[in-house]
Amino acid sequence: MTTPLVRFAPSPTGYLHIGNARPALLNFLFARREGGRFLLRLDDTDRERSTEEFAGAIREDLSWLGIAPNLFARQSERTASYEAAKETLIGQGRLYPCYETPEELDRRRKRQLGRGLPPIYDRAALNLTDEERVAFEGQGRRPHWRFKLDHRVVAWNDLVRDESHVDCASLSDPVLIREDGTVLYTLPSVVDDAELGVTHVIRGEDHVTNTGVQVQIFEALGYPVPVFAHHNLLTTADGEGLSKRLGHLSLRSLREAGFEPAAVDSLAVLTGTSEAVRAVPTLDELAGLVDFGRISRAPARFDPSELDVINAQIVHTMPFAEARERLLALGIPEETAESLWTVVRANLVKVADAAEWWRVVAGPVSPVIQDAAFLETALSLLPAGPFDATTWKSWTEAVKQATGAKGRSLFMPLRLALTGLDHGPDLAGLLPLIGRERAAQRLAGETA
Ligand code: GLU
């Protein structure tokens, strides 16, 4: 097999969301595993809606996911190739000019529907005489151009969906070129895939019908047809599709909300497959789990709250070195950051939640006092500093001896006084960080 070349081809008309992360990652991870290359192609033929800001954001968001493209292309710079393809197709009689206005087409569709017929373009423009064309042009009409489909079944062996086919007899001849001469997505995508040497087209199943059409265009232009894989689409738990309008699931908002890229990667790739959805900390491991044969045919439903669960799994085992910068940025002092991290990470959903435990350590904490006499005894038994990892055990042993309290009734009053909270990380780890002075003040009921 030649080295695979895959591509991810977003339009820079909005921010990428978690649903776009799925094809981006499936392409990237497949290439990574197969020793192939990944092309980022900006499908920016819609000049009105494409912006540089979105183009830059796409690169940033991919990089956040861990995707570094090997190659880059943008359709707005490749128009000469599309012109050449247009001429070839016209020469073959496969691309023909049409002059209907949108209103005329709409009326025709309604008539067809009224008669119970499928609203397929009737190819009226194929029968125009030269005089009629000249007359339309004389009225100032400019043609749009349709691709004349062969009315046959196009079949391919899809890496996800196995034997697949589209009956092109049931489709309208697609418009490839607009009145203003600009190309729509269908043609440039084929020309780019062919000229840039794309071997595998991995994209969402919303493109299955396009594949039927595009296979015919590949063939008409004499290009080899790539291998196709159409994956299921991510939807929310109630089956709602993810559009660029679902802002809270944009990759940037997930990043700003403090999610780890590995959590987003894991969820975007594993949802809707026969693999359990779980945290996979590295892209190499995730690449090993990509198997097109195990992608489900049903929609890939996910509940955004799963992100919390997976993120927590990643944070719970995250090495200090990986969290360090962010902990310092939270204002946690360098000399304490590592020990704090070791003690609290198992209690976090996001790295930034460490700030809350730093506050519990450094104060101010308003102690919750339930039994002042008990705490007075505990205070009198508090060892001299400095505290270490053994302090908690020896101290609570002494408090137990003195008061007879054990289990929850021994530990909970101490926790409430020392942290102001009824839950949290292991106090054996937390107590040395709180230190003797603050511990003593809190046991005495002072805010410290
Ligand atoms: N620009 C197209 C899209 O975002 C690309 C589809 C494809 O992968 O061919 O849907």
TrEMBL record:
The Aminoacyl-tRNA synthetase class I anticodon-binding domain extends over 373-444
- Please provide one cellular component term from the Gene Ontology annotations of this protein: cytoplasm
Q: Which residues form a coiled coil?
A: none
What Pfam families does the database record attribute to this sequence?
Answer: Anticodon_2, tRNA-synt_1c
**Segments carrying motif 'KMSKS' region:** 241-245
Annotated residues for binding of ATP: 244
Report keywords, A-Z.
Aminoacyl-tRNA synthetase, ATP-binding, Cytoplasm, Ligase, Nucleotide-binding, Protein biosynthesis
Protein location: Cytoplasm
EC number(s) on file: 6.1.1.17
InterPro entries linked:
aa-tRNA-synth_I_cd-bd (IPR045462), aa-tRNA-synth_I_codon-bd_sub2 (IPR020751), aa-tRNA-synth_I_CS (IPR001412), aa_tRNA-synth_I_cd-bd_sf (IPR008925), Glu-tRNA-ligase_bac/mito (IPR004527), Glu/Gln-tRNA-synth (IPR000924), Glu/Gln-tRNA-synth_Ib_cat-dom (IPR020058), GluQ/Sye (IPR049940)
Short sequence motif 'HIGH' region: positions: 10-20
Family as reported in the entry's similarity comment = Belongs to the class-I aminoacyl-tRNA synthetase family. Glutamate--tRNA ligase type 1 subfamily.
Q: What does this protein do?
A: Catalyzes the attachment of glutamate to tRNA(Glu) in a two-step reaction: glutamate is first activated by ATP to form Glu-AMP and then transferred to the acceptor end of tRNA(Glu).
Q: What is this protein called?
A: Glutamate--tRNA ligase
Source species of the chain:
Methylobacterium brachythecii
Q: What is the lineage of its organism?
A: Bacteria, Pseudomonadati, Pseudomonadota, Alphaproteobacteria, Hyphomicrobiales
The gene coding this protein:
gltX
